[in-house]
């Protein structure tokens, strides 16, 4: 039987040692916001780190006491009796530097100027985020993680953990992800970024000082992104060519079709809570991730460092943003290294967003694999 982790409280940890970044810059003293669910066992061997995707945060499961609608973004996956069972695992959700959800980011004060960082916040890579997370894990007294788990951009962080700290995790679970972005994906990100930076209210990224938010750009960026998270079939099934009103209005400005209404709603909602500079930073981190680049484009050589880790890769048939073919590239690189890898390709209609949804076959795969992890890291546990 499954239930919720209940009310959870975000925690905050400060790091006074600057974080060196791949760009050559460094992030001075910074804070990370995180949440934990479950109990760390006596051996400190049952910790699972969950890495968030583009617009998510540290709030993975449960509710915040002051907001009854604040259900964690992966609450169907993490909790008592759920695939990532918090009766067995100590689960950690962490918010990355540069985010707008509490960890040090563009909205916080730049100690060098006394003003918000804005566009001056240093560009972080997926690897930089993982380095920051590794410090948190160390500060929590965890020498080795049972698993690092992530979907989409979170899956890239899970990969980076396996490649950067192979001795510090036993399992890597990467869902709906890729070893790098395709040119098409980089193109989508670039269009979204241009929508933001050309918004008259952007002010070069220092819009906080002007008391405005570049909502028009954020709306368009979110609409572009949202289209790529859905499959053609799911959009057709949900909206088709349905009109909002009974008749055509012969307008090029007004909403005519229901899909237009839906996208504008998603864009409006996003522009109310997400930070424009964070969107620029995160999409650039997506663009940059490419572990094979340091190995002449040879992904198998990149993964040689991680061959002692056990992997689960999961993809979805209708995910055209991070298609199954991209996951199979990672699987091949692991097989070439004779690594222990499991791969599941789920026939699901929902597109990229399937990794967040209630698909029984997907959840069954995850449950079975995490039962294996529990048996692996907890002596005497039932597999």
In short:
Residues 46-358 form the AB hydrolase-1 domain. This protein is of the alpha/beta class. The protein has helices spanning 126-139, 153-164, 183-197, 215-229, 232-238, 258-273, 276-288, 299-303, 324-336, 360-377; strands spanning 11-15, 19-20, 26-27, 30-37, 47-51, 78-79, 84-85, 90-94, 145-151, 169-175, 310-316, 340-346.
Describe this structure in words.
- The record marks 321 as: Important for acyl-CoA specificity.
- Transfers a succinyl group from succinyl-CoA to L-homoserine, forming succinyl-L-homoserine.
- This is Homoserine O-succinyltransferase.
- It catalyses: L-homoserine + succinyl-CoA = O-succinyl-L-homoserine + CoA.
- Belongs to the AB hydrolase superfamily. MetX family.
- It is a single chain.
- With 383 residues, the chain is an alpha/beta fold.
- The protein has two domains: 11-180 and 290-377, Alpha/Beta hydrolase fold, catalytic domain (Rossmann fold), CATH 3.40.50; 185-283, Rna Polymerase Sigma Factor, Chain: A (Orthogonal Bundle), CATH 1.10.1740.
- 33% of the residues lie in helices and 15% in strands.
- The chain is built from ten helices and twelve strands.
- It has an eight-stranded mixed sheet, with helices on both faces.
- A hairpin with a 5-residue loop joins strand 2 (19-20) and strand 3.
- The longest helix has 18 residues, at 360-377.
- The radius of gyration is 21 Å and the shape is globular.
- The mean pLDDT is 96.
